[in-house]
Predict the structure.
Amino acid sequence: MRDIISTDSAPAAIGPYSQAVGFQSLVFTSGQIPLRPDGTLVEGDVEAQTRQVLENLAAVLEAAGSSLAQVLKCTVFLKDLSDFQAMNAIYAESFPSEPPARSTVQVAKLPLDVRVEIEAVALRGER
């Protein structure tokens, strides 16, 4: 049986989707963009936006009984692949050892014209 994950510590969904869905020992997050929990957009460079995205992911995972340390796979969507190194430096701060598997792709456009979106699959419970 799946369960729907929701928290006020991350921005509410801006469409017909859940912040995350849990199934057995796994959590599948929706893509997080750089919105603050109150729904306001973090303007600025990819570093500032990546920090907010990772804070949102951490909050959703915590609500699901997981954490960034339990992430198995991330997918990073960048508006401009030339932002890869800057995004990667901030991303590495959240995954200092044993980083998860990851794909990073450039996309034509992201919601609200943001620079970065990240989704994750994680374990929940004790690692």
User: Anything to note?
Assistant: Helices lie at 46-63, 84-94. The radius of gyration is 14 Å. Residues 2-123 form a domain with the 60s Ribosomal Protein L30; Chain: A; fold (CATH 3.30.1330.40).
